[in-house]
Write a structure and sequence with these properties.
Elements lengths: L1 E9 L1 H6 L6 H20 L4 E6 L2 E5 L5 H14 L4 E9 L2 H13 L3 E3 L4 E3 L8 E8 L2 H4 L5 H20 L4 E6 L2 E5 L5 H12 L6 E8 L2 H20 L6 E6 L1
Parallel strand pairs: 4-6, 10-11
Antiparallel strand pairs: 1-3, 1-4, 2-3, 5-6, 7-9, 7-10, 8-9
Length: 250
């Protein structure tokens, strides 16, 4: 089982209008700061956060109970007293199932803590997270033939394809910046991953590397995934091509 917490800034759109028309630079700085603080607070509890939209974040929160969530919520409220934030917690065998359970808890108004605006229920048996860290193989060579913006367009195309194909397997894909992606992929096998990567890269003259990390917490799984990706690079230097590699940190 994996536990996800969806953190949302409530009423963000209407609030931004109150800043006037010359607000975009302010909003970009604010969004970056909020993401930094949300990531910091959850990371301190062995979680990892991905931005879904800049007013909504997904955290893998295996091992966190209601009090842990309330503590983070209280700190965020102190940092951003002009904004209202809520959390919805869900668990499942796959990331998509956990996402649905969190979504339904919010939709149905199933409050875990009314004062802190926390929906859903924190589970004790969410003790396994699987994360993929995917990047473009030899991306510096891509820069030799494409301009910076053309590279961005290509990366966004890859992101869209990865998100679409992994969603069919109940996995959630997030863009990390550069040419890096992470996929919360509980239940997805290496064989399925290989099939997805081949389909995504068909016809675009790009190869992808995929490190898979499995751990009890989101942060442990992410660390394992990045170690696995680094191992792929090290093996390549030795002349060994292994585009998918898995490390378990249980």
């Amino acid at each position: 089982m994996i536990q996800l917490t969806i953190i949302r800034i409530e009423g963000y759109g209407p609030w931004t209008v109150t800043l006037g028309s010359d607000r975009e630079a302010q909003l970009q700085m604010l969004q970056a700061k909020i993401y930094h603080d949300v990531q910091r607070l959850f990371s301190e509890k062995n979680c990892i956060v991905f931005f879904n939209r800049f007013d909504e974040y997904f955290a893998i929160t295996n091992g966190l109970d209601a009090l842990d969530h309330k503590e983070i919520q209280r700190e965020l409220a102190e940092l951003y007293n002009d904004l209202k934030m809520s959390m919805a917690i869900g668990a499942g065998k796959t990331a998509f199932e956990a996402n649905l359970n969190a979504y339904n808890a919010r939709k149905e108004g199933r409050m875990l803590d009314n004062e802190a605006r926390i929906f859903g229920n924190a589970l004790d048996d969410a003790d396994m997270a699987q994360i993929m860290h995917i990047d473009v193989d030899s991306s510096t060579k891509v820069g030799d033939r494409l301009s910076p913006y053309e590279i961005t367009a290509l990366v966004m195309k890859i992101y869209s394809r990865l998100a679409e194909e992994f969603l069919k397997r109940n996995a959630l894909t997030f863009f990390l910046g550069g040419d890096n992606f992470m996929v919360i992929s509980n239940g997805v096998t290496k064989e399925q991953t290989d099939a997805v990567i081949k389909k995504v890269t068909a016809g675009i003259d790009i190869k992808l590397n995929c490190g898979i990390g499995i751990g009890k917490t989101g942060r442990m799984a992410a660390e394992g995934a990045t170690k696995a990706l680094d191992t792929i690079r090290d093996l390549r230097k030795q002349g060994k091509i292994q585009p998918i590699y898995e490390i378990r940190c249980l």
